[in-house]
Design brief:
The protein is built from no helices and seven strands. The chain is mainly beta. The chain has one domain. Strand 3 and strand 4 form a beta hairpin.
Length: 88
């Protein structure tokens, strides 16, 4: 397959090239700090951003949302959204 961007370095504003399923967990960090979070089933989200220690909450995130966030940990406590993907 032809990829005209194969030799360019992606910036944070560019599209993600990888994704993984995210399972909320109060104690464990994600395997990769994300550059975005896709929310399949809407709800509330509690997370810790890269470089922070205190959690922040996003209330009423709609289904199908794409959040441009550098997520370190997605917390189970306070998270009701589901079907999320970490993008990087």
């Amino acid at each position: 397959m032809n990829d005209p961007f194969a030799t360019t370095s992606p910036g944070l504003a560019g599209p993600a090239a990888h994704a993984f399923a995210v399972t909320p967990d109060d104690a464990a960090d994600l395997p990769v700090v994300t550059r975005g979070l896709y929310v399949g089933t809407g709800g509330d989200i509690s997370l810790v951003l890269k470089g922070e220690s205190a959690p922040v909450s996003f209330v009423g995130v709609p289904a199908g949302s794409m959040l441009p966030l550098r997520v370190l940990r997605l917390r189970a406590t306070g998270t009701t959204a589901n079907d999320m993907l970490g993008l990087y």
